[in-house]
TrEMBL record, chain A:
UniProt KW S-adenosyl-L-methionine keyword: yes
Organism whose genome encodes this protein: Quiscalus mexicanus (Great-tailed grackle)
Classification via InterPro entries: SAM-dependent_MTases_sf (IPR029063), UbiE/COQ5_MeTrFase (IPR004033), UbiE/COQ5_MeTrFase_CS (IPR023576)
UniProt lineage: Eukaryota, Metazoa, Chordata, Craniata, Vertebrata
Keyword entries, A-Z: Methyltransferase, S-adenosyl-L-methionine, Transferase, Ubiquinone biosynthesis
NCBIfam families: MenG_MenH_UbiE (TIGR01934)
Protein name, UniProt field: COQ5 protein
UniProtKB/TrEMBL annotation, chain B:
Protein name in UniProt: Ubiquinone biosynthesis protein
Pathway terms, separated by semicolons: Cofactor biosynthesis; ubiquinone biosynthesis
Gene assigned in the entry: Coq9
Subunit structure: Homodimer. Heterodimer; two heterodimers of COQ7:COQ9 come together on the same side of the lipid pseudo-bilayer and form a curved tetramer with a hydrophobic surface suitable for membrane interaction. These two tetramers assemble into a soluble octamer with a pseudo-bilayer of lipids captured within. Interacts with COQ7; this interaction allows ubiquinone (CoQ) isoprene intermediates presentation to COQ7 and facilitates the COQ7-mediated hydroxylase step.
A single BP term in Gene Ontology: ubiquinone biosynthetic process
């Protein structure tokens, strides 16, 4: 698995766009929207190598923070000069993120490197940390994070149950587990089209764009091997999460599973 | 035992187990039926099975044991109650719920348990208010039965009941218009309508209404109209102590009383007219 991603790291984003025809951006947007984070949230993004989820999270929190600030300013209409002066003093110490932070954790150094470069390039400076780590054995303390996300990463984990247990461990009570992953299409017609596309088109794209047919063959096969929605839901419940449910996107091509540590 | 194998049975057992503890908390049967009504809409787009409640304790980790002994519903109930404190500042939003969760020692992500538009928070609040009103009315009835208080005339009773219920909105009055609009969303209408009708039924029950005939509908419609219009007037009332609203309420209740008197009069007049016609017909035939 490590070598697959070493090869894939640099071309990861390009391949994502071409394979999914850009829809993966929408899927990731939906994931962050579902999370609905408020300022002050601590997010752990596992297997989040190139930082897609992390950047979206930061954008979302920034806009929420802006909205809150605007609402506060509206109230300023009726305040005395003294109160306005004091509120300006306070705002100076508020950063634009409102203490929210993302820790991006990945097992692969190359992916993290690409992610860091992207962050610099796009201008994301505060609130980001990059940590090397294994999802089955996270280098973090218990009860630390508000949200744990793993987008298109869990199918690459050898022991999914261990990863889920680790997720449970590092989440605070009340914390949320969110998993975005390829899943099973139940509609038979769509399933045939999807299989055709996966096995014929994707490895070819892999060869043409990234020069690596085998990695993408592996990718498609691992998607087929991955447990379907209900089974993954049961596994998440086994790890101790409550209120576990899933949302199918695009008829089951992708599914978002959500659970809470209560 | 995997609940997957016997989903219908397990779901029934689970829901029965869940309802049993939560029923103990509720005092009025009306309030409890409306509470369960709005707690059941499924979250997410797939119908979910609920093997909670009789959950073997998977969590031997950390200090989670305290949470195991209360059901999810109870925890959600506690979070929403805690969130009400933050509504004047944040409105009926997921932010208020997140703040509420924080005071309980949970992560802010627990707000994800609910819809992001704050529907559950508003419905919870309405249900709580209705429960409080029921209790108030029941205590008043007890006093009357014990002979310690006078039985109020019907118009005064209705006026006091509606006023008491509307006064519960005062701490949240600034953000209440927002709540009203959320309650009107198609998704929420079944729940909000059930809560409203059960509250009105409650008031009529304690007013001593035992009728099961046609009048039942008219009385509920009349009181619902009085309640809703007074609520709207209250939204834009800036008079001290909301005295304009209470005066409006008094007038509406008086109108309703006059209307019912007129209706009876019309009925008796109608009967008199019919009798007159019958008499005329008999005379003519003779």
């Amino acid at each position: 698995v490590y070598q697959v991603f070493e090869n894939v790291a640099k071309k990861y984003d390009v391949m994502n766009d071409s394979m999914t025809l850009g829809i993966h951006r929408v899927w990731k947007d939906i994931l962050v929207h579902k999370m609905n984070p408020c300022p002050g949230t601590l997010l752990l993004d596992v297997a989040g190598g190139t930082g897609d989820i992390a950047f979206r999270f930061i954008n979302y929190v920034r806009s929420v923070q802006q909205r809150q600030l605007q609402r506060k300013l509206k109230h300023h209409q009726n305040l005395s000069w003294q109160e306005i002066f004091e509120s300006y003093q306070n705002d100076k110490f508020n950063n634009s993120l409102g203490d929210s932070q993302v820790v991006v954790c990945d097992i692969n150094r190359e992916m993290l490197k690409v992610g860091k470069q992207k962050a610099q390039h796009l201008g994301y400076s505060e609130g980001l940390s990059w940590v090397l780590g294994n999802a089955e054995e996270l280098p973090f303390d218990d009860d630390k994070f508000d949200v744990y996300t793993i987008a298109f990463g869990i199918r690459n984990v050898t022991r999914i149950d261990l990863a889920l247990q680790e997720a449970y461990r590092v989440l605070k009570p009340g914390g949320r587990f969110l998993c975005l992953e390829f899943s099973h299409v139940s509609n038979p017609l769509l399933s045939r089209l999807y299989d055709l596309y996966s096995f014929q088109v994707i490895p070819v794209l892999g060869e043409v764009i990234a020069g690596d047919w085998r990695s993408y063959q592996y990718l498609v096969e691992s998607i087929r091997q991955f447990p379907p929605q209900e089974e993954l839901k049961a596994m998440i419940e086994d790890a101790g999460f409550f209120k576990v449910d899933y949302e199918n996107l695009n008829f089951g091509i992708v599914a978002i599973h959500s659970g809470f540590k209560l | 035992v995997r609940c997957q194998q016997y989903p219908p049975l397990c779901a029934l057992q689970a829901s029965a187990a869940l309802r049993a503890p939560s029923d103990e908390h509720k005092k009025e049967p009306w309030a409890s039926s409306s509470q369960q009504h709005f707690d059941s809409p499924p979250a997410g787009h797939q119908p979910e099975q609920k093997p909670q409640g009789p959950h073997p304790s998977y969590t031997g980790q950390g200090g989670q044991e305290s949470e195991d002994y209360e059901s999810e519903e109870q925890l959600q109930h506690r979070i929403l109650t805690a969130a009400l404190e933050f509504v004047p500042e944040h409105g009926w939003t997921a932010e208020a719920i997140a703040e509420g969760a924080k005071t309980l020692g949970l992560s802010v992500a627990a707000a994800g348990l609910f819809h992001s538009d704050g529907s559950e928070l508003i419905l919870h609040f309405v249900s709580e208010c209705n429960t409080k009103l029921s209790e108030l009315l029941r205590n008043e009835q007890k006093l009357v039965q014990l002979g310690e208080a006078e039985k109020k005339p019907i118009d005064e009773f209705l006026r006091d009941a509606v006023e008491a219920r509307l006064r519960m909105l005062i701490p949240y009055i600034e953000k209440w218009p927002q709540a009203l609009s959320v309650l009107l969303l198609p998704r929420n209408i079944p729940s909000s309508l059930t809560l409203l009708t059960s509250m009105i039924d409650d008031i009529w029950h304690y007013a001593g209404d035992q009728s099961t005939d046609f009048n039942w509908y008219t009385r509920r419609a009349v009181l619902t109209a009085i309640y809703n219009t007074t609520e709207l007037v209250m939204m834009q009332d800036s008079s001290p102590g909301f005295e304009d609203t209470w005066r409006f309420l008094e007038n509406r209740v008086a109108d309703a009383m006059t209307m019912s008197n007129t209706a009876t009069q019309v009925q008796s007049t109608g009967e008199a007219v019919v009798q007159g016609l019958m008499g005329a017909a008999v005379t003519v035939s003779n």
